[in-house]
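Office hours follow-up: a student asked to see two folded examples consecutively, so here they are.
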Amino acid sequence: MLLVKRFDPLCVTALMLVALTCIVTATDAQNTDFDSDSIYYTPLSRTPPATVERSVSVFRDTAKVGQFTRYYFDVGMAMLAGCSCGTGPEFTSSTSTIHGVTLGRKLRVGAGVGFDTYVGWLAAPMFGSVGYDLVGTRNTHALFVQGQYGFSFAWFQGYTNALLPDEQHGGPMFAALAGYRLRYHNLRIAISAGFKQQKAITVYETETWMPSETGGMVPGTPSHTTIETTMGRGVLNLAFSWK
């Protein structure tokens, strides 16, 4: 005879609730372990590096130490402004080119030639040039001073009714400038102002006459009159240079 054991429905329900409670508890424990494992599962936040803003001066030379000497050349165009007695203000032009070397970071030494125009004169100076950067260097923008000294060949260009000289000579030329130089890669653009002085000489010969023993007139020793002209002008110069 087969015996069938009968279970109480309340006992079965209680057992099912206990089993469900155990399953939920085990699942929560597993999730807690998963969340607490920060090495494998928790993303690490990265703090971006702090950025420091620095204002770099246009006069600051950040270039590494290079050659002590470096070749350069420039081409300049200038306006000469001045006045002569009786003619009023005069505005003429000047052009020049200088070739030389930079010594270190601040000193420039070179030789140049130019062509200057004045009212009544033309001059072709040959000169030496020395420049020094007061602020900045050859690798940056710079405030500079420059001096030029040399000798000019000169030609007198008188008015139509003017008495032409028998001789004409050039003389010493001097210029002093101060300005600002801009740098763009190997190109330099300089704007400067200053003073320029040029001297020139004209010689006029005048015939003289002397009485002769016969009562007539004979040529005597010619008389020479030498006039030295000094032309001082204000200068406004624009120059383009390479290195």
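And the second, which I mentioned at the end of office hours:
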Amino acid sequence: MRKPVQIATGLLLLLAGGVVAWWLLSAVAQYVLGLDKALAPAVIGGFVTVALAIFAFWRDRAKSRAEAHRENKIEVYSIFYDIIFKLLEMQKSDESYNIENDPEFQKKWFQMTRGVLFYGSPEVVDAFSKFKVSDGSAGDPLAAMRNIGRILLAMRKDIGLSNWGLNELSIHQIYVNDDVRKIGKG
């Protein structure tokens, strides 16, 4: 019951906003057309200048908002990298390592999860949640690597790095000695 009322209210507000915008544009057009021909270019130039100043302010604010949390994001995302590389280090050294019984791992995991929820972009949160619910038993031996790759790519994008030429598998190639694309193909 509440949803149709919200839709109707939204449509009504949109219609009212459109009418007000049309009225304002008509009034401005009549004002500009009624001006002396020598004065009209100056008024149009003034409108364009104000519009550009508002646009520049809006873009600058959006950029500064994105930069405000960049350091915190890097700190949180570094925890994920630390966890991944710790697991790789343990695997290469053939040490027996049970992450479920490691209090340090648990602490870092929860700290990272909290940071991702607080600072992560929607793409990072989505990739992280898909990783947590995936069971890896879908017949794809690379499923876990693909999910981790999606997280890594989303984190890189979120802090402003380019992912050009990378995909969820190729990003792992930097620390995997074998060809990542051939892993699991027998």
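Two things to take away from it. The longest helix spans residues 2-33. The mean pLDDT is 86.
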